[in-house]
Design brief:
Immunoglobulin-like; four-stranded mixed sheet; two-stranded antiparallel ribbon
């Protein structure tokens, strides 16, 4: 049987990355990778990638700040406000 890796990818403003990392660590997540545009955290086999710039192999393929500013909208998830990418 093939194994499928599932994680949560979050685009976050560079000004909020360290706060988000600190809050995640307070919830039991451990930082497993620091990269130029991503911090990867894990807890009990669940992986979260915090991206300041959407990238692959350190190559930015979209402007993260512009996506957050111009192409996202507020949504509710379990009674919490979040932002989601939109068209």
């Amino acid at each position: 049987m093939d194994r499928i890796s599932v994680d949560l990818d979050i685009i976050i403003s560079s000004k909020d990355i360290y706060k988000a990392t600190r809050l995640s660590r307070e919830k039991g997540f451990k930082v497993i990778v620091y990269e130029p545009y991503t911090i990867t955290l894990a807890r009990k086999g669940f992986i979260v990638d915090l991206y300041t710039q959407p990238s692959f192999a350190w190559i930015i393929y979209s402007d993260g700040e512009k996506l957050l500013k111009e192409y996202s909208e507020k949504i509710m998830i379990n009674n919490a406000v979040a932002r989601a990418l939109t068209i």
